[in-house]
Amino acid sequence: MFCFQCEEATKGTGCTTKGICGKTETIAVQHDLLVYVLKGLALVAEEAQRRGQPDASVGPFIAQALFATITNANFDAARFNALIQATIAKRNALKAAMGFSSDQDEVTWNGPVSAYAAKGAEVGVLSQPDEDLRSLRELLVYGVKGMAAYTDHAAILGLEKPEIYAFMIKALAATTRELSLEEMTALVMECGAVGVTAMALLDEANTTAYGHPEITQVKLGVGTRPGILISGHDLKDLQDLLEQSLDSGVDIYTHSEMLPAHAYPAFKKYAHFVGNYGNAWWQQDTEFAAFNGPILMTTNCITPVKAAYRDRLYTTGMTGWPGVQHIADRPEGGAKDFSAIIEQAKTCPPPTELEQGEITTGFAHAQVMALADQVVDAVKTGAIKRFVVMGGCDGRHKERSYYTDVAQALPQEAVILTAGCAKYRFNKLDLGDIGGIPRLLDAGQCNDSYSLAFIALKLKEVFGLDDINELPISYDIAWYEQKAIIVLLALLHLGVKHIRLGPTLPAFLSPNVAKVLIENFDIKPIGNVQEDVTAMMAAA
Ligand code: FSO
């Protein structure tokens, strides 16, 4: 196996025997084969589009299948075998319907399940010998994976855009062709542009379904009733769970990326939606053990499942872990059936309290814009000198304490804008406020990173600036998996420069590709805390 798609790539180069994430070689080569046959499906779908016979089911299918290959989403070999088989079947059916034939292996390979491991090993990342082409192809595929996750979330809430699916097909198909480095770079940039469209669509889907997030205090302690813990990013799953557990005597708690759900008006009517439990994804083994009740993983990040809570863990959607109960998809127009989780919760003791207090969330774009006059005044008077975007992902590496230290070292005139699970490195600190504006504004999940771009674009308009880089905003981004890659590409598309990226630069950037990003966008690695803080406050 060879995998370098996430920030934990072994020794900063790639995992070769087992993923640091817990992914075995079996799963890694299944990922490789699934992506390979998805490229074949994309080639056939592209031909269908060219002939004016597009198949509208291909885009959503690709989005879901790619979502399953995102880091920490799914570790279930049976599920990947089924996805590979389904992809080949879909590709073959579309070929047959068009009477299309091709010599390309991605389009013709038809091996049995017993051949999957060998084929996956043959078609993996290293099958492309040119390191720059490999780097650009993988950067594009990982960007599309992140886009796929956002697109699937929006589709679950009923919003889709054909141009997003069309780009996924185009991008996957392009990675099978001998394109020049310039052509590949252009596709990567286009990925960022379509990424903005996908992120805006998800924002529209979330806010149309559940209203605009509002400033909200979320409790960190626990009650005396049994609880269900819901993690991941899927708000529709949360909605179904809240509805079905009404009057059950069970409380619902959020974990990790589900925290910002408390800020949506539609979820505030549920009295049994009581608080947030624990921290970011990587601490789930001890936190899930202490929770005592069932846990529902709606999306990544899953870490290797421990016996202490295995029989209380449930997956749904594109997530999976072998032997863990999986809740089936909702029937057309219906709801998922969470009754087994609710019944198990009733037999469990209440959660063991980890901490007390409250944290504040809900500073998505509409809430920040409601404070726009105050914010603009504070900038004009110098009370706010700098906004620092510290969004993205958290992770296990101890070097991520950098983000806690930066949050503490920033001067009082700096406001932190965050989204994603990166916030857990500093969202329980008392950072105070500036004339009533909190110094930490949490816009939501990584899925809500669109809010950060929206706020920047609005401020640019308000201050009458020509260039987004003239704003008093610095970017100090933490990344871990592929959703952060599409956010990064989206920011680059919007013209944002001087982004600090940490805790390490992606292993999949070859020296030449990294050089292009550095020369064109001044992307830089994080450094010493005090030096970075001083530089950011000085707009460097
Ligand atoms: Fe975090 Fe995991 Fe949201 Fe990621 S829970 S790391 S970018 O999957 O999705 O921020």
Features:
3 domains; six-stranded parallel β-sheet; alpha/beta; Substrate Binding Domain Of Dnak, Chain:A, Domain 2; Rossmann fold; globular; 540 residues; 44% helix; binds iron/sulfur/oxygen hybrid cluster
Structural description of this entry:
Helix 11 links the parallel strand 5 (295-297) and strand 6 (313-316). The protein has 540 residues and is an alpha/beta fold. It folds into three domains: 10-209, Up-down Bundle (Substrate Binding Domain Of Dnak, Chain:A, Domain 2), CATH 1.20.1270.20; 216-346, Rossmann fold, CATH 3.40.50.2030; 362-537, Rossmann fold, CATH 3.40.50. Helix 8 (181-210) packs across helix 17. It contains 19 helices and 16 strands. It has a six-stranded parallel β-sheet with strand order 4-3-2-5-6-7. Helices cover 44% and strands 11% of the residues. Iron/sulfur/oxygen hybrid cluster (FSO) is lined by residues 72, 256-257, 281, 300-301, 393, 420-421, 445-446, 480-481, 483-484.
